[in-house]
């Protein structure tokens, strides 16, 4: 009898493993779509008879939809149940990917890319909720979330290489076709329903629509400026400011606001959100611009990005040790400094032809910049949020990161539509370097390291070692 009772326990411990694999594969699929598409940009331009602005919109419309719907996707998962939202998101992502692959024109591709962003916004927050339900034990849950998060690094490293290989075998459409079988595998691995708690919270569409309209209009303003239409750029910019103000007003009175009340006056958390947007701005600038400037094959472009993407995959483990030893601010400062230098080197390498060593060194430093800053700033934000608002931090942080990515692709596409002089080629990277310099400045002057509701002993220690207070 003891053996009979032990076996079910072991089986129960192993049972979530296929489902965790499926949930992680769904996250991989979402992230792969972004990085693999970068090396497909020249192929898309040739096939659909479009220009840099067109492929820029193919990137920005996805990140706009994702940024606008991420928080709403989390609320929807809490209200309707994470499993149902996850399944719909995966199925829809696979179907919309096939729609992208079959797109006969740029307009159809843009519509399908917008749907991809919406379905991705359903997958990401529901994935975390399902992991929490599968692993109620905090220790095992932490390991499961670490495995889920590690997939992002693998997707970042594999995306450009896999995308380049797929394009060499067929063309850019293969980048989207591969998502359909992956979606079917995810649905097969997660075919057993996962029970999760439901919260009958209110839902409000208006703030999310306002955010989407603001991002779309701001992108139009940047695009018009890049094309020299300064009057229209100014008009769109004013409309974007008005929409942003209106969205903020509506959000404050919404029954389901984008920003939790407990976070509205929290300056350290909003600083971390700004850091996240800055990092994604710089990262997207590199991933979007390099394939367009190299004038080489998709395979070669993917291989060129490897020094950066591989470090993003493996270096967060070292970042965790630095955070544990010195607190989050040190790796954040190190990361912004590395990114600043790396972007300047990348700009120099693209401005002067045939500088592969300088380019590789710049991409290497950029990879260090991403892998040092992102894990640390997540911990910084969570540590400075009140307990009741920590669930909102992840959603807003991901949304602000996508906002940074949206603006970066719009700015880079607007600049690169101009004649490719040496100055024009370097300009997107120099602007991103300036953004990182601002991030470094704010991280250097940042002195707030207070954790909400700390113990008295922790307060005393924080007075002497503010960076280390979070470790306890």
From TrEMBL:
Q: How does it sit in the membrane?
A: Multi-pass membrane protein
Membrane-spanning ranges: 20-40, 52-73, 80-104, 110-135, 147-168, 174-190, 202-222, 228-248, 269-294, 300-320, 332-352, 358-382, 403-419, 425-443
Named from the GO MF annotations, one term is: transmembrane transporter activity
Q: What's the chief localization of this chain?
A: membrane
Q: Where is the Major facilitator superfamily (MFS) profile domain?
A: 19-451
Q: Kindly state which keywords UniProt assigns to this record, in alphabetical order.
A: Membrane, Transmembrane, Transmembrane helix, Transport
This one is known as: MFS transporter
Q: Which organism is it from?
A: Jiangella rhizosphaerae
């Amino acid at each position: 009898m003891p053996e009979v009772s032990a076996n079910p326990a072991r089986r129960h411990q192993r049972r979530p493993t296929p489902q965790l694999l499926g949930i992680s594969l769904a996250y991989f699929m979402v992230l792969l779509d972004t990085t693999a598409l970068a090396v497909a940009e020249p192929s898309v331009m040739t096939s659909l008879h479009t220009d840099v602005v067109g492929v820029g919109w193919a990137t920005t419309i996805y990140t706009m939809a994702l940024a606008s719907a991420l928080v709403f996707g989390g609320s929807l998962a809490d209200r309707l149940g994470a499993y149902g939202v996850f399944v719909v998101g995966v199925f829809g992502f696979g179907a919309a990917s096939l729609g992208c692959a079959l797109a006969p024109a740029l307009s159809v591709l843009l519509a399908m890319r917008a749907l991809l962003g919406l379905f991705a916004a359903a997958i990401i927050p529901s994935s975390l909720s399902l992991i929490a339900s599968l692993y109620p034990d905090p220790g095992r849950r932490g390991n499961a979330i670490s495995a889920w998060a590690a997939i992002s690094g693998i997707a970042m490293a594999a995306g450009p290489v896999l995308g380049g290989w797929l394009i060499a075998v067929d063309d850019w459409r293969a980048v989207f076709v591969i998502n359909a079988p992956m979606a079917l595998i995810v649905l097969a691995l997660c075919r057993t329903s996962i029970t999760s708690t439901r919260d009958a919270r209110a839902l409000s569409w208006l703030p999310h629509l306002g955010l989407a309209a603001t991002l779309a209009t701001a992108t139009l303003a940047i695009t018009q400026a890049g094309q020299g239409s300064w009057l229209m750029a100014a008009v769109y910019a004013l409309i974007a400011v008005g929409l942003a103000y209106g969205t903020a007003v509506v959000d404050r009175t919404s029954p389901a606001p984008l920003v939790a009340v407990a976070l509205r006056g929290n300056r350290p958390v909003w600083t971390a959100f700004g850091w996240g947007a800055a990092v994604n701005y710089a990262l997207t600038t590199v991933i979007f611009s390099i394939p367009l400037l190299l004038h080489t094959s998709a395979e070669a472009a993917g291989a060129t990005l490897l020094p950066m993407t591989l470090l993003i995959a493996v270096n967060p483990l070292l970042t965790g040790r630095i955070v544990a030893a010195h607190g989050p601010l040190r790796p954040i400062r190190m990361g912004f400094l590395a990114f600043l230098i790396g972007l300047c080197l990348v700009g120099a390498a693209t401005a002067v032809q045939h500088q592969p060593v300088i380019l590789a060194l710049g991409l290497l430093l950029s990879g260090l910049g991403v892998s040092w800053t992102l894990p640390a700033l997540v911990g910084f934000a969570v540590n400075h949020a009140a307990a009741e608002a920590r669930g909102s931090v992840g959603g807003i942080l991901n949304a602000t990161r996508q906002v940074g990515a949206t603006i970066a692709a719009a700015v880079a596409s607007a600049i690169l539509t101009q004649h490719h002089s040496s100055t024009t080629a370097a300009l997107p990277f120099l602007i991103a370097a300036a953004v990182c310099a601002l991030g470094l400045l704010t991280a250097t002057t940042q002195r707030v390291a207070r954790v909400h509701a700390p113990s008295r002993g922790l307060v005393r220690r924080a007075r002497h070692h503010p960076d280390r207070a979070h470790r306890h």
